[in-house]
UniProtKB/TrEMBL annotation:
UniProt organism field: Polycladomyces zharkentensis
Protein name: Uncharacterized protein
Organism superkingdom: Bacteria
Length: 204
């Protein structure tokens, strides 16, 4: 498969996918704000760097198969997909990845950057990233600067069915907060940020 064909190139398709993403996320927000819209009620966390490796794709495939989705959108919000990426490279840093893709191919497409600027591959130049399926029953928000990804689920039964595949994902707890703290001065997470995260992402 020519992995370059998976990147979104046409404005019409980009606009449609952005509308879908906007139905799930508050795209203008950033953590520790609540970035998921109201239909999501259950949250689990993982480390951002893990989302950029091939093992992560196995979890994505299981989620997509459970919700009967045939592709997953991997979309970069920072750097800006229009003002920076499309303007510079004439395509978007948004990728429609078929669920049937292998984990090696997933990693390869993340590593696939513009010929004139390999460092702009999603693997290297991505600070806010979302993973979203057409069913919109689950979604993932990731921020490199905080070192975490948040999986949001509409239906907790889907999460229960997938617990064997989500064994490394955690609810918001001291471990998750310690991951985030690594990205702050003196590895100390400000209490206000910790409290906001717990308020927004506790499963109650």
């Amino acid at each position: 498969m020519n992995l370059a064909t998976l990147f979104v190139k046409e404005k019409k398709e980009f606009d449609e996918l952005r509308r879908m993403a906007n139905d799930v996320f508050y795209l203008e927000r950033r953590l520790p704000e609540q970035v998921f819209r109201e239909q999501f009620h259950h949250y689990l966390f993982e480390q951002f760097d893990w989302a950029m490796c091939d093992e992560f794709w196995n979890v994505i495939q299981q989620l997509a198969e459970e919700t009967k989705d045939d592709f997953v959108l991997t979309a970069v919000l920072d750097p800006d997909p229009v003002g920076y990426y499309y303007k510079t490279f004439h395509y978007y840093n948004w990728i429609k990845i078929p669920v049937a893709l292998s984990s090696d191919e997933y990693f390869a497409v993340l590593e696939s950057g513009p010929e004139e600027s390999p460092a702009d591959a999603v693997l290297y130049n991505s600070y806010t990233v979302i993973w979203l399926s057409p069913s919109m029953k689950w979604a993932i928000w990731g921020e490199r600067n905080d070192g975490i990804c948040v999986l949001g689920l509409q239906d907790t039964s889907v999460g229960n069915d997938l617990l064997p595949f989500l064994k490394t994902w955690r609810p918001i707890d001291e471990t998750v907060l310690s991951w985030i703290a690594l990205h702050y001065v003196d590895q100390k997470l400000p209490q206000e940020i910790a409290d906001t995260l717990v308020l927004n992402y506790s499963n109650g």
